[in-house]
């Protein structure tokens, strides 16, 4: 049986995603704080910053991550959408008339926290704006928190 090109390309991603150095450091630090070797740890690690992902690590090796073929897969982040229904992309092309290049630009530079809030993709700005009563900023932070919680729950199932 022949594998589809999409599946083959997706399976080529690395288990740590694009935050491998951050996760390697966090795993070593967790082991140090717990006084246990990394080879005996089963942990969920989160990299939350300008780019975000969650990774499940079993016995010192990443076994699952929220990141996919590109940094657009997974969690909602500053200017990237996170995971979206593939049907949306088809609808944007066929019904909204957007080109693939325009969709790519929107998903990678105009979506995520920036698109949800309408003002910023930086959580620090959104926390300040939310404290001042900005409902869109509060909504963007709520979506971000939900995305992170879903990511943690999802990869945690791989620690069995």
Could you provide a short overview of the structure?
By secondary structure, this protein is mostly helical. The protein has seven helices and three strands.
What is the CATH third-level topology name? Nucleotidyltransferase, domain 5
The CATH top-level class label = Alpha Beta
Name the helicity range: 40-55%
Biggest sheet character:
3 strands, antiparallel
Low-confidence stretches: 5-16
Mean model confidence by pLDDT: 90
**Strand fraction:** 5-15%
How does this model look, in words?
This protein has 160 residues and is mainly α. It has a single domain (5-159), classed as Nucleotidyltransferase, domain 5 (2-Layer Sandwich). It contains 7 helices and 3 strands, in the order ααβββααααα. It has helices spanning 5-10, 20-34, 86-94, 100-109, 112-117, 123-131, 135-156, and strands spanning 42-48, 52-58, 61-65. Strands 1-2-3 form a 3-stranded antiparallel β-sheet, sandwiched between helices.
């Amino acid at each position: 049986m022949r594998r589809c090109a999409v599946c083959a390309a997706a399976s080529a991603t690395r288990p740590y995603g694009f935050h491998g150095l951050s996760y390697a450091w966090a795993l070593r630090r967790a082991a140090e704080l717990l006084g246990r070797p990394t080879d005996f740890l089963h942990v969920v690690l989160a990299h939350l910053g300008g780019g975000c992902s969650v990774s499940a690590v079993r016995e010192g090796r990443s076994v699952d991550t929220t990141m996919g073929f590109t940094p657009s897969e997974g969690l909602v982040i500053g200017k990237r959408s996170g995971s979206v229904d593939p049907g949306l992309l088809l609808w944007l092309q066929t019904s909204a008339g957007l080109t693939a290049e325009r969709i790519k630009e929107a998903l990678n530079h105009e979506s995520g926290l920036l698109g949800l809030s309408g003002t910023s993709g930086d959580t620090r700005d959104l926390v300040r704006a939310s404290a001042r009563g900005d409902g869109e900023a509060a909504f963007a932070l709520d979506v971000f928190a939900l995305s992170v919680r879903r990511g943690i729950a999802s990869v945690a199932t791989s620690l069995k």
